[in-house]
Amino acid sequence: MLNGGRFGMEKTGQIQGSAVGGPAVGQNPNPPAGPQPQSQSSSVQNGNVDREQIYNWILELGNPETREMALLELSKKREAVPDLAPMLWHSFGTIAALLQEITSIYPLLIPPTLTGAQSNRACNVLALFQCLASHNETRGMFLQAHFPLYLYPFLHTTSRVRPFEYLRLTSLGVIGALVKSDEQEVINFLLTTEIIPVCLRIMESGSELSKTVATFILQKILLDDIGLSYICQTYERFSHVAMILGKMVLSLAKVPCARLLKHVIRCYLRLSDNPRARDALRLCLPDQLKDDSFGPQIRDEHTKVWLITLLKNLEPAIGGPVGEQRVAPNALN
């Protein structure tokens, strides 16, 4: 478990754009959920890093009186310090302090009393967690210590107010950083947790940014052979995924979002690689993906190719009634 204090994710309320395949996901569309402490640093500017100051901020994480400012500064500078993750992980008491910050938020989730300032502070911790999840040296230890499980209480929240939305979005960013590595160990770990139903719920009812990151996570799980096999193993798992993807297509037909549509189509295409799922998709693929409803929205060449390939994969059974919104139970039993 916690090795003396060695452990350790992303900027307040921000998800790295590359984590979901597009730079537009890089920043919150709204101002911060609450007031941040005034930054006092001028030591890390224009790419110049004062490593002594970085070490001092890490040490200040261990002091409750200086922790908030240290969290803010480190979360802002994490991209300028490539080895920040190992520095955090191997420094005495640091990860214990970060976990203390995370668990102190739990009582504020139910009933939902989280303030903007509290959300921002937690998101700064999550920013450092994402740093750990992204780094090759710390990712494996991050998983072995079951750190993603500390985020699930945040992902289970349903309040739509800004502090909770930022908390969910930044937590999703940590999982997104993990799956972006394309490592089998990551997928194996996530499949032992409730990440798929959690992502599906957010895909159905979250904000556009949260839906995008959650769909990206599902996509990365599906792109793994074990992940695809897991989801297509039973009718119940496949039908839940197909139902949510179908709802998203209907919603995107009314409120377009090209980035989100791209991930939805990629999920459908990957599902069509499984023979039993392909048979079921021939019955339940939404009409909007067959009748060129999204033609004007799809400008990305990859997305165009994915949609054409998807329809080609389903071609043999297209001929009867199309777009029937049901899944044949026997197809995946």
From TrEMBL:
* Start-end of Low complexity biased regions: 36-46
Q: Could you tell me the superkingdom of the organism this chain comes from?
A: Eukaryota
A single Gene Ontology biological process assigned to it is: regulatory ncRNA-mediated gene silencing
Name the UniProt record assigns to this protein: CCR4-NOT transcription complex subunit 9
**Does the record's keyword annotation contain Transcription regulation?**
yes
Q: Does the keyword Transcription apply?
A: yes
What are the protein's UniProt keywords? Activator, Cytoplasm, Nucleus, Repressor, RNA-mediated gene silencing, Transcription, Transcription regulation, Translation regulation
What cellular-component terms does GO give this entry? CCR4-NOT complex; cytosol; nucleus; P-body
Tell me its family: Belongs to the CNOT9 family.
Record region (Disordered): 1-46
Tell me where in or outside the cell this protein is found: Cytoplasm, P-body; Nucleus
